[in-house]
Amino acid sequence: MFILNYGGQELMNHGLHFFKVSYNGLWYAAPLHTQKLLLFIMQRGTINTVLVCGRIFVASLEGFASLTSTAVSYFTVIYSTR
């Protein structure tokens, strides 16, 4: 469970890093045709890249923490009702 969520977090971090590198580069010094292509890439980079599991759960370390917290809460309730 942790490995899947860690992979999703790495994908998110890579997408953000790609946007920052393309934006902070010397794109304005490139030829006009290349500038137009880089603008499309930067525009796509504003959308977060995420890994969705089963169309329900976004895989990230934050999701792993909430999933673990919820599981512990459920097990605590089940244990207290015994």
Helix and strand content put the structural class at mainly alpha
Q: Note the gap between the termini.
A: 27 Å
**Strand coverage percent:** under 5%
Biggest sheet layout: 2 strands, antiparallel
The average pLDDT is 90
Radius of gyration: 20 Å
Layout: helices, strands, pairs:
Layout: H1 2-24, H2 32-45, E1 52-53, E2 57-58, H3 61-80
Keywords: Cell membrane, Membrane, Olfaction, Receptor, Sensory transduction, Transducer, Transmembrane, Transmembrane helix
Membrane topology: Multi-pass membrane protein
Protein name: Odorant receptor
Description:
- Helix content is 70%, strand content 5%.
- The protein has 82 residues and is mainly α.
- It has one domain (2-80).
- It has a two-stranded antiparallel ribbon.
- Helix 1 (2-24) runs antiparallel to helix 2.
- The chain starts with a helix and ends with a helix.
- 5% of the residues are buried.
- The mean pLDDT is 90.
- One of its GO terms (molecular function) is odorant binding.
- It is found in: Cell membrane.
- This is Odorant receptor.
- Its main location: membrane.
- Keywords: Cell membrane, Membrane, Olfaction, Receptor, Sensory transduction, Transducer, Transmembrane, Transmembrane helix.
